[in-house]
Amino acid sequence: MTNVINLATYPIDRAGAASPSVAVLASAGVRMAYARGEEVYAQDEEADLIYQVVSGAVRTTRLMSDGRRQIGDFYYPGDVLGLETSDTHRFSAETLADTVVLAAKRRTLPLVAGKAIADAFMAHAAARELDRAQEHLLLLGRKTACEKVASFLLHAADRAGGARATLPMGRQDMADYLGLTIETVSRMLTQLQGADIVAFPTARTFIVKNRAALVRLSE
Amino acid sequence: MTNVINLATYPIDRAGAASPSVAVLASAGVRMAYARGEEVYAQDEEADLIYQVVSGAVRTTRLMSDGRRQIGDFYYPGDVLGLETSDTHRFSAETLADTVVLAAKRRTLPLVAGKAIADAFMAHAAARELDRAQEHLLLLGRKTACEKVASFLLHAADRAGGARATLPMGRQDMADYLGLTIETVSRMLTQLQGADIVAFPTARTFIVKNRAALVRLSE
DNA sequence: CGCGTGTTTGATAGCAATCAAGTTCTGTGG
DNA sequence: CCACAGAACTTGATTGCTATCAAACACGCG
Question: What is the pTM of this model?
Answer without folding.
Answer: 0.90
